Structures are given as C-alpha cells and as structure tokens.
Amino acid sequence: xxxxxxxxxxxxxxxxxxxxxxxxxxxxxxxxxxxxxxxxxxxxxxxxxxxxxxxxxxxxxxxxxxxxxxxxxxxxxxxxxxxxxxxxxxxxxxxxxxxxxxxxxxxxxxxxxxxxxxxxxxxxxxxxxxxxxxxxxxxxxxxxxxxxxxxxxxxxxxxxxxxxxx
Length: 166
Fold this sequence. Notes:
alpha/beta, two-stranded antiparallel ribbon, 42% helix, 7 strands, single chain
C-alpha cells in the first residue's frame, strides 16, 4: 500500500489534471437516485475530489478522505471542503452517512484488507444507506504502473457484499 500512496504523492498533479473533469454523471444519477435529494455523503478515497465536488454542487453535505496527503491537499482546494488524510482501515464512523462512494479506491488495498475496509464503510452507513464501490474486473492482485490493484470478478464482489450484515 505504501508504494501506491507514494505513487499518488509523486504524481498528484498529473493525476488531478487527468481525473478532475471526467464526466461521471451516469454513475452519480444511479447512486443519488437511491439516496434522495438531501443527505450526508462520504467520498472514500476521493483522489482529485471530483466526485465530492459534484455531490456538494448538487446540495449534499460531503465528507471526504484520501490516503495520499498530496491528493488530499488538491482535493481540499478543488472542493472547498476539508479532506482528511486517512486510510480505509483508519475509518471508524458508525451510522453517520446516507451514502458512501468508494469509486476506484478500494481496489488499491491488498486483497486481505478489502473485506475489513468494506465492513468499516458499511458500519459508517445509516440504516438504509447506500454504498457504492467499484473494482477492475479480474481476479487477484497485481502491480501496474507502480500501483497495487486488487481486481474482483462478479462472484468475488457478490461474496463480499453477502458477508455484510443486513
């Protein structure tokens, strides 16, 4: 994990420039439709802050965190909200959020930590809350471009979700 965080710290400006304006509207619409017009959202592993900013602009209250200090600083400037520097395994809120968005962020965890991280996020949701996660399709762990990836297929993701209470 340290190698991946170091990569993002070294390449924060390039990563920010290539991701901050990507159109995610179709995914936002599906996610926000399940939440309603108001609520508290968490952008977990927010990277550039693109999604946190989009949610804030739509009238939601938003919290965000990222493990990279350099990305957290850029995301804070981009969103106007304080972005905490924290890992998924440090997250420890309970029944606070109406929705948690973890877009292409959990996939950087070692496979052995993914289940624990998802359980922690799940505990952070209010009853009836919505959790969005995304992974690259595949199976197992790999290093690509100095970053660690854990890929999941549908069966692995289904098993991960089925292990959550309620």
